[in-house]
Design goal:
Length: 468
């Protein structure tokens, strides 16, 4: 090797080192942006939607277990503006802004988040306070010894390495509130995030729209962005989206903040646009893959259908679902583009989440009136053939995942007709029609296998049998 060749090798090596350093710094910068955005959004919602104390939120929700990495991110709260700003060493700050009736929204881009034309729709007058259960405002029940034992176990910490941090449990039997408990600092009126349980709420809104003839399950060319000649995404059916088999590329991976789901939620102004821009990875209808992006596309399809019919789409959830159910605490949060993030961002009190579950336990009937279309609950609970072991229906889970105890002996004691809305950090809403049971649990289980849903439900089924 001559001197010139040796010099070129050294120059290339130096250039490669500089490129690697630049790439590494760029990646760290993007991760810091996501971390700041996550912390700002979570803190803003907890403060202004849930009404919690700042010290508790900072020491728990964005600080424990895997969230320890967020501790160095500085947090500034402007209560007058309803704004929370977070940053790492002052770099790339991210701000979440609270608006009454809309919750918290990340300010991504030059302009502040777009405000929907109608920021709040009041629910009808509350139900008769003398009525029992979630359908009324009955006082907290006094559980018997069996139910008290169920609650004790739900709030216990059997493994110090995997803390559950249960915050709320509500159990409904035959339409009546049978058991209820809250951790210190939480109560029956406090709205809490359901994370991906929100997906099942969109199922109800889709059912209402299909029943009204605004949409059909076989409809294709769902978005103008997919309607160009030759675009294979135009073949995606509405039912394919509901059953998570659209075929669209999307990585539901939470361990890497630069993958699709975290980028969509915390780095992009429009969640549905990010997901809809993805290409097909499989032919529509042939491959099941759980995708939060799919849910946000579904909302956009529904919004356009409602607006084409001359309806105010952004007040539709309150008007059509939350109001009739008496879910007065429910707050859906939009992204910076003004669209609700139905994959993840619905806050509601534990009792209101139980009301939603009770609607499905009663086969779509509420207060003697068929609210959801005839057969919609059955359709939602029908297994999607492409999902492994038929574990998923239409935006409802049909089997308990392994991480939640789904392969344990306790899981075999849970009736086969049970179905579930499941969310990040161990949010679980279980509906067991054959036992007349709705069991809700909300918490901060950062480790995915900390909350044993199967054991909890087996306890509930046993207690329900003894209290019948």
């Amino acid at each position: 090797m001559n001197i010139l060749q040796a010099s070129l090798v050294l120059l290339a090596a130096a250039g490669g080192g500089i490129f690697a350093a630049f790439w590494g710094l760029r990646r760290l910068s993007r991760i810091a942006e996501v971390g700041a955005a996550y912390k700002a959004k979570v803190v803003c919602s907890a403060l202004f939607v849930s009404g919690r104390e700042l010290s508790a939120v900072l020491s728990e929700d964005v600080s424990v277990d895997d969230y320890r990495i967020l501790r160095p991110f500085r947090t500034v709260v402007d209560r007058e503006r309803g704004a929370v700003t977070c940053s790492f060493l002052g770099l790339k700050p991210r701000t979440a802004l609270f608006r009454p009736g809309l919750g918290a929204t990340l300010c991504l881009g030059e302009a502040p988040p777009q405000a929907p034309p109608r920021t709040r729709v009041e629910a009808p007058a509350p139900a008769d306070p003398s009525r029992p259960g979630p359908q009324g405002n009955a006082p907290t029940p006094e559980p018997g010894p069996r139910w008290d034992a169920v609650l004790e176990r739900a709030f216990s910490e059997p493994d110090a390495r995997k803390l559950r941090r249960t915050r709320a449990v509500v159990i409904v039997k035959d339409g009546r509130l049978h058991a209820e408990r809250y951790a210190p600092g939480f109560d029956s009126a406090m709205p809490l995030c359901g994370w991906s349980m929100t997906k099942s709420v969109l199922n109800a809104l889709m059912g209402l729209s299909v029943g009204a003839g605004r949409l059909s399950l076989d409809r294709t060319k769902l978005l103008p962005e997919w309607s160009s000649p030759g675009d294979p995404r135009g073949k995606i059916r509405l039912e394919d989206l509901l059953r998570m088999r659209s075929g669209l590329e999307f990585a539901e991976i939470y361990s890497d903040p630069l993958r699709d789901v975290t980028q969509m939620l915390f780095a992009r102004p429009s969640a549905w646009t990010f997901a809809a821009d993805k290409p097909l990875a499989h032919p529509p209808g042939t491959f099941w893959s759980y995708s939060s992006g799919t849910t946000n596309i579904l909302w956009r399809v529904l919004r356009r259908a409602l607006e084409d019919a001359g309806e105010d789409a952004l007040s539709f959830p309150q008007r059509a679902l939350f109001g009739p159910l008496g879910m007065r605490s429910a707050v859906l949060e939009p992204d910076a583009g003004g669209d609700f993030v139905f994959s993840s961002f619905l806050y509601a009190s534990a009792r209101d989440w139980a009301r939603f579950g009770l609607l499905y336990a009663q086969n779509g009937v509420w207060e003697g009136r068929l609210l959801l279309p005839e057969g919609w609950v059955k359709e939602s609970r029908t297994p999607t053939p492409q999902s492994p072991e038929g574990r998923y229906g239409a935006h409802w889970w049909l089997k308990i995942p392994k991480e939640f105890g789904g392969e344990s002996a306790a899981a075999r004691r849970v009736p086969g007709d049970a179905f579930f809305a499941l969310g990040h950090e161990g949010q679980t809403l279980a509906v067991i029609p054959s036992k007349g049971l709705v069991a809700l649990r909300l918490g901060l289980s950062v480790r995915i296998d900390a909350w044993d849903l199967a054991a909890f439900l087996a306890d509930c089924v046993e207690a329900a049998g003894e209290s019948s």
